[in-house]
């Protein structure tokens, strides 16, 4: 009796631990201030801004074409998708028509980029949880996509490839054949990877019932993309509000079902991303069947002057929905270009997700929402 | 869709003065009174016709006399999106303008409003954690305002030391201002270090514009 009272009286202090800004698990320069009660996270506060370049301010004195390399540098793992959204926003304001072949190439490179980005997630997430080998497998396959992009645009990471009105460079038949071959190989090896990592007992133990995002919470925090779909919500912008020529293609939306534990846990988000690669490959195959000869860039005035007004365009990127709110005063450069970053909104969830978790589980949670700090800080 | 929303809002929230204007290019928006923005957001979220369940982004735009705050909201159930706009008259350089926070309606507003405060100096009253987010806590000024000039010294460090700056960068902005019809709409953060001939030309242009106005 006496003894148990003493235990209750035992006073434990909260210890403050800084995770980051240089920390392998934060995927960049994110700092999370954690108040820990022994191994348990009592409070987690994310601090952003270490990569803040105020790209929105730069855009205000660049012409419309000059902005494309800047949007590349937001989510540097999915540059093609960043360019796609921006070009769509300007084209919609200008009323430019994009030639059919350019539209096909755009979808092709966006989906290839999505595959590359999800492979990156697959590799780094396994590293977060202590498995190193999958990272090498993932990079081997990602390398092929990067090589192709290098041939197309001259750069491996920051492409400046999708231009206003079309694309910069044409793709040739030999490259298309190579992509077809890559699809077959990728599909086969991905099944193997998924069995190796996703079905691994340790991996499942580390991710099931961890970092559960409920449907209500996902909506409240404005989650989009794989995070939203991981919570069991059937929402894919490519299906619900098709942009470009996405309405021509037949593919499925992958939704988390809670196969290993609760709906919306880390395993569900992992599974959504991996299975989405298969869907992307499906789209790529349809592109290869449907692509025809033709011009690759539409008629765009030499000096682009966007008429006065505002527009909000969003597209489905690997990490969620990316939105551009473009305000124009009729001049040569945008009056204001605001970027809606999905990573930014996902980061705001960390505080609520972290509460009550073990520190190791918190690492798994950060990895599963897959943020790129270049896009968070812009 | 916008007209129905305006009708709905004017009926549901007294004194919100919702208006909309048809546009030729881009997207139309619904403008509401700044005082009733929270009530409007609650009404839009809870209405069975619209169910705006997601706040996508809070985007502030700085104009000469006012700051517009755009709440871009979407319904993932009804598959619609809307630009909801409030206009806040500006008081002066580096002075914040105030509007009520919508954090109780959508939790995502927390970070998004902090960013708008950090970049444009819009103060959100009733925000649970009202701090800067991208810039350091002790930073001065609001970078995305058009009249922003970067501070000279930060924590004892010179921000843009002469030995490290590229003069062309500064001149680039002044040239852009010379080319523009109204130089006030060109934002540039480094007004101080322009080469003398350019700054003289710019001064002459500004004086010319002002004397034109008086006439």
Mean pLDDT of chain A: 87
CATH topology grouping of chain A: Cytochrome-c3 Hydrogenase, chain B
What portion of the residues of chain B fall into strands of 2 or more residues? Answer: 15-25%
What's the quaternary structure here?
heterodimer
Q: What is the CATH homologous superfamily assignment of the largest domain in chain B?
A: NADH:ubiquinone oxidoreductase Nqo5 subunit
**Helical proportion of chain A, percent range:** 40-55%
Q: Architecture of chain A, according to CATH?
A: Orthogonal Bundle
Question: How many domains, in number, for the residues of chain B?
Answer: 2
Query: How many helix segments of chain A?
Result: 16
Taken as a percent bin, the fraction of beta residues of chain A is 5-15%
**Into how many domains do the coordinates of chain A divide?**
1
Which helices and strands, and how do they pair?
The complex is a heterodimer of chains A (378) and B (215).
Chain A: H1 2-9, E1 15-19, E2 31-37, E3 40-47, H2 55-59, H3 68-72, H4 79-94, H5 100-128, H6 133-153, E4 162-163, E5 166-167, H7 173-198, H8 201-207, H9 215-220, H10 225-230, H11 237-240, H12 266-290, E6 309-317, E7 320-328, E8 336-340, H13 342-347, H14 350-354, H15 359-369, H16 373-377
Antiparallel strand pairs in A: 1-2, 2-3, 4-5, 6-7, 7-8
Helix pairs in contact in A: 4-5, 5-6, 5-12, 5-15, 6-7, 7-12, 12-15
Chain B: H1 2-12, E1 19-20, E2 30-32, H2 37-46, E3 54-62, E4 66-75, E5 80-89, E6 97-100, H3 109-120, E7 122-125, E8 153-154, E9 157-158, H4 167-179, H5 196-214
Parallel strand pairs in B: 2-5, 6-7
Antiparallel strand pairs in B: 1-2, 3-4, 4-5, 8-9
């Amino acid at each position: 009796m006496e003894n148990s009272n003493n235990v209750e009286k035992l006073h434990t202090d909260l210890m403050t631990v800084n995770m980051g800004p240089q920390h392998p698990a934060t995927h960049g320069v994110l700092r999370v201030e954690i108040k820990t009660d022994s191994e348990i996270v009592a409070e987690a506060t994310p601090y952003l801004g270490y990569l803040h370049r105020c790209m929105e301010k730069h855009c205000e004195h660049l012409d419309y074409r000059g902005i494309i390399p800047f949007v590349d540098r937001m989510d540097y793992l999915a540059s093609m998708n960043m360019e796609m959204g921006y070009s769509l926003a300007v084209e919609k304001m200008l009323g430019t028509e994009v030639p059919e072949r350019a539209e096909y190439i755009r979808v092709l490179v966006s989906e290839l980029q999505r595959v590359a980005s999800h492979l990156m997630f697959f590799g780094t997430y396994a590293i977060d949880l202590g498995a190193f080998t999958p990272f090498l497998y993932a990079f081997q396959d990602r390398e092929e996509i990067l090589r192709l992009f290098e041939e197309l645009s001259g750069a491996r990471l920051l492409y400046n490839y999708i231009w206003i009105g079309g694309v910069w460079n044409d793709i040739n038949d030999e490259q298309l054949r190579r992509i077809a071959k890559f699809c077959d190989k990728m599909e086969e090896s991905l099944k193997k990877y998924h069995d190796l990592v996703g079905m691994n007992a340790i991996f499942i133990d580390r991710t099931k019932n961890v970092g559960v995002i409920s449907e209500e919470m996902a909506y409240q925090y404005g989650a989009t993309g794989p995070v939203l779909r991981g919570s069991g919500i059937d929402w894919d912008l490519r299906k619900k509000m098709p942009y470009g020529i996405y309405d021509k293609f037949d593919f499925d939306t992958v939704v988390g079902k809670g196969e290993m534990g609760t709906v919306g846990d880390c395993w569900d988000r992992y599974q959504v991303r991996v299975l989405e690669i298969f869907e992307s490959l499906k789209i790529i195959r349809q592109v290869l069947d449907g692509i025809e000869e033709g011009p690759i860039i539409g008629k765009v005035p030499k000096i682009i002057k966007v008429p006065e007004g505002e527009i909000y365009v969003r597209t489905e990127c690997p990490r969620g929905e990316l939105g551009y709110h473009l305000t124009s005063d009729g001049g040569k450069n945008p009056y204001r270009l605001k970027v809606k970053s999905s990573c930014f909104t996902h980061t705001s969830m960390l505080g609520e997700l972290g509460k009550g978790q073990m520190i190791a589980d918190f690492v798994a949670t950060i990895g599963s929402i897959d943020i790129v700090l270049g896009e968070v800080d812009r | 869709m916008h007209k129905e929303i305006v009708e709905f809002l004017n009926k549901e929230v007294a004194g919100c003065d919702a208006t909309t204007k048809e546009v030729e290019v881009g997207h139309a928006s619904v403008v509401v009174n700044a005082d009733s923005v929270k009530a409007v957001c609650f009404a839009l979220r809870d209405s069975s016709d619209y169910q705006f369940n997601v706040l996508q982004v809070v985007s502030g735009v700085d104009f000469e006399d006012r700051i517009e705050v755009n709440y871009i909201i979407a319904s993932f159930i009804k598959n619609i999106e809307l630009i909801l706009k409030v206009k806040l008259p500006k008081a002066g350089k580096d002075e914040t303008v105030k509007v009520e926070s919508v954090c109780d309606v959508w939790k995502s507003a927390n970070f998004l409003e902090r960013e708008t405060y950090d970049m444009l100096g819009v103060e959100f009253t009733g925000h649970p954690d009202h701090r800067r987010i991208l810039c350091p806590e002790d930073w001065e000024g609001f970078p995305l305002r058009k009249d922003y000039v970067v501070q000279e010294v930060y924590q004892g460090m010179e921000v843009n030391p002469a030995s490290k700056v590229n003069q062309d960068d500064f001149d680039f902005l002044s040239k852009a201002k010379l080319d523009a019809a109204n130089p006030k709409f060109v934002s540039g953060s480094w007004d101080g270090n322009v080469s003398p001939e350019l700054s003289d030309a710019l001064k002459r242009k500004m004086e010319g514009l002002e004397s034109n106005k008086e006439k």
